Amino acid sequence: FVLGKSQTEVLEAGNGYDGSSVSQFLYSQKHDSSVQGLHAQIAIGGRMMLHLLTLTCLNDNYYYVIQRKEWTAVRREKFKVMVKKVKGAIAAQFGSNLGLRSDGKLARITMDPSKHGKLIALFASTASLQRKMQLEKILKDMATIMKITRSTFVPAIVAETFKARCVEWSDFLDVCFPTLPWPRYMHFLISHGQEMILSLGSIGLWSEEASEHCNKLLKYNMKWLSRPNMDDMLVDVMRRMWDRGDPLLRQFEFEEDEKI
To answer: How far apart are CA 258 and CA 237, in angstroms?
Structure first.
């Protein structure tokens, strides 16, 4: 990161997202950049929050002041072991096995305000009162931001202040936990979230679950339900997707069923 700048300022400028050239490209391709919103809530609510909960669970000043790339091998291994323990505790206490798609499952928990108290009690029990209050605010504000991004309709007053809300939250996060690694999707949230909402009405219309489900269907059809030749494979997969989700075919099937 650039000396003297917060993580928020760096990512807002695009330097934290593969350089400013990528940022400018995304800015010029407004509708294309909306796809980044699909995984922002998973990367932030899942991966980053898992790291944060592990930090507070360890409650070791070393991890609060030393950047991850500078950790010793012993410290790195200790953190790795704690990550597994945190995942195990979440599975036991929330009935969510963090195996396949663990980031998405954890994001659903961290973005649920009703579960914040339990998360703090579990993973910040030895932390100071100040740390607990910081974690509570970070989780609460993140849940509010992600609720807006998942909405299918965002009121104008909320949309127009969305960036300021994200900057305030990310600055607070940066000050409280300066060693916390940020995912690339933080750039989308800070720099392009409001832009997408104002341009498209909302970004909640592109739900992560739908895109991932479609992706898995495509891969399954390619692997198990299509012929091995590439041309034939594309034909088979396309026809199966039509059969499963084409609105005209569905209407035709509905009309045929009505006749019966």
So the answer is: 28
Contact between 42 and 107 (Cβ < 8 Å): yes
Q: How far apart are the first and last CA of the chain?
A: 66
DSSP letter string, 49-67 = HHHHHHHHHH--HHHHHS-
Question: In which element (H, E) is residue 34 found?
Answer: none
Q: Among candidates 239, 249, 195, 232, which has minimal Cα distance to 217?
A: 239
Question: Nearest-5° angle of CA 245, CA 246, CA 250?
Answer: 90
How far is it, in rounded angstroms, from Cα 96 to Cα 98? 6
Average pLDDT value over all residues in the chain: 80
Of the ranges 203-207, 240-244, 248-252, which one carries the lowest mean pLDDT score?
Answer: 203-207
- Give the pLDDT score at 9: 63
Name the pLDDT band for 46 (thresholds 50, 70, 90): confident
DSSP 99-124: STTHHHHHHHHHT-GGGHHHHHHHHS
Residue 178 has, within 13 A of its CA and on its CB side, a CA count of 11
The pLDDT of residue 26 is 45
In Å, how far are 7, 151, 167 from 73, measured between CA atoms? 26, 43, 34
How far apart are alpha carbons 21 and 14 in whole angstroms?
8
Which residue in 165, 130, 190 sits closest to 7, CA to CA? 190
Rg (CA), the chain: 21
Both tokens of residue 117?
Answer: 């108290």
In the numeric block, the tokens 């800070």 are attached to 190
